[in-house]
Amino acid sequence: MTRTVVIAGVGSGLGASIARKFASEGCDVGLFARSGEFIESLADELDETPGDALAVPTDITDPEAVEAGFETVREAFGPVDVLVNHASGGAWKGLQDLSTEEFDQALAVGARGGFLCSQEAVEDMLDEDGGTVIFTGATSSVRGNDGALAFSAGKFAVRGMAESMARDLGPEGIHVAHVVIDGGIRPPEREVGSPEEYLDPDAIAESYWHLVEQERSAWTLELDLRPHVEEF
């Protein structure tokens, strides 16, 4: 079955891996990012897969931009079946070094953006008898990180939103899942020391696809992914 997917917040790392995985499975993928340069090149790459892709430069903190972005995807591919809320941000600063603007921006990108995109996608899913919404979390989703107050606050907010939506929308046939990325993700464009201590973005993308394909009788609410190192 061809699915229409929106990935909100696509960069060269995990977001691109998720897009490649979904397109390889025959999905039509709308790529949202504030800047169009990278997502346009990624869309061209994904044209060679069983699926299709469309670059949609979108500021996900802007309600009108989000509405227009989803309408562009619908016109190209039809109603949205899957949403991946992947965008996040936040100055890595502690309480006394953090500005109000930096704090507000972290909440705007993660929580507000996830809220706006979810409203649009869920409207389609309710009309189409179901779908999947996945939120990308982090270690900071479950335990605050020192020197990262805004990022931690944004990730805590996203986790709470995902849990509330899962309970509200599950009976309507909409699977909402939150993924805790508990560790560093291997960067795509440089070598790292001790690569075994990093999560492989392509392997994470496989887990996202598994969430989409899960049977309703055994839906995952929260998935914790971490690298395999000795202390675990």
UniProtKB/TrEMBL annotation:
Q: Which InterPro entries match?
A: NAD(P)-bd_dom_sf, SDR_fam
Q: Where is the signal peptide?
A: none
One Pfam family assigned to this protein is adh_short
Q: Record's Gene3D superfamilies?
A: NAD(P)-binding Rossmann-like Domain (3.40.50.720)
Protein name listed in UniProt: Short-chain dehydrogenase/reductase SDR
What is the originating organism of this protein? Halococcus saccharolyticus DSM 5350
